[in-house]
Specification:
This protein is mostly helical. It contains 14 helices and six strands. Strand 2, helix 2 and strand 3 form a beta-alpha-beta unit.
Length: about 300
């Protein structure tokens, strides 16, 4: 597993690593699964995909529902297929819950989202801030103790499972470990990461991010859909709709991306199994060598080419 904050260089490192250990990449990202959303999600480039086989990219259309359960199922299939062909599966991404679903084998409730109910609850929360978290605390104290009150999406999901199944979310989401895995986290000085974030956003804009957002709206993709709530889309939709300036949209994108990186750091640093590698200003090849050193230290046997 290669994890860490956004823009730290996970994708480039993974390609170098895969070439060295005869591996293939399984993408653990909640946004790169969507077709037609390439620039804003920072998908691996065509050149990267030509060098190493990538799995779980472009799985569904932006208007389709894709859950953690869907990811877990497809990721397990991909990993089994990679192993069956004598290759090394390398799970790469920054979506912590996706990674955890595979590493720890979470037993995820198969309860599809009910968008009408969710919208009603969101409106109720706007009218009475904190009401949903208090309700969850009554129905499932264990889940409430693990979910931050401000994470409304997770609070609603836990409530949804409780109401639809009659069982607590925490009871249905017990872990069922699927085996050992080595998790390597890439990190870098915060100031350097913020510079990388700023540079990547500028690269995305030059590559046509605004037009990508405009094209999605022209296709009728609702801005309220989960796919459009990803970084780069929710900030630029108001600009495309003439509700703000590009400068203001980019400023919001930079701010939100920095905040997201902080949350990723917090999530992965809470897992003591993650072995951290400082990427400094090293090229991807050198970062991959550092990861290989960690694997060797952990006693992982891989054929290095």
């Amino acid at each position: 597993m290669v994890v860490g904050p956004t823009a730290v260089g996970k994708s480039a490192c993974a390609v170098e690593l895969a070439e060295r250990v005869q591996g293939e990449v399984v993408c653990a990202d909640s946004r790169t699964v969507y077709r037609g959303m390439d620039i804003g999600t920072a998908k691996p480039t065509e050149a990267m995909r030509a060098r190493v086989l990538h799995h779980l990219l472009d799985v569904v259309d932006p208007w389709e529902v894709f859950t953690v359960w869907d990811f877990q199922r497809l990721a397990r299939q991909a990993i089994a297929d990679i192993r069956a062909r004598g290759k090394v599966p390398i799970l790469v991404g920054g979506t912590g819950l996706y990674v955890k679903a595979v590493v720890d084998g979470l037993l995820i409730p198969q309860v599809p989202p009910d968008w009408d109910v969710r919208r009603a609850w969101e409106e109720e929360e706007r009218q009475q801030p904190g009401v949903l978290y208090r309700r969850l605390r009554e129905l499932d104290p264990e889940a409430a103790s693990r979910i931050p009150p401000q994470n409304l999406r997770r609070v609603i999901r836990a409530l949804e499972v409780c109401v639809r199944t009659g069982q607590t979310f925490s009871a249905l989401a017990r872990r069922q470990p699927t085996g050992e895995a080595v998790q390597v986290g890439l990190t870098v000085d915060r100031a350097r990461l913020y510079e990388r974030i700023r540079a990547r956003i500028q690269d995305q804009l030059r590559a046509g991010l605004v037009e990508e957002v405009r094209a999605l709206l022209r296709r009728g993709v609702n801005p309220a859909l989960p796919a459009m709530q990803g970084l780069g889309y929710k900030e630029l939709v108001p600009y495309v709709l003439g509700q703000t300036t590009l400068e203001e949209a980019v400023r919001a994108l930079e701010r939100n991306t920095r905040r997201y990186a902080k949350r990723q750091w917090t999530w992965f640093r809470a897992d003591r199994r993650v072995r951290w590698v400082d990427v400094d200003d090293l090229p991807p090849q050198a970062v991959a060598e550092r990861v290989l050193e960690v694997l060797q230290t952990e006693g992982v046997r891989v054929s290095v080419s």
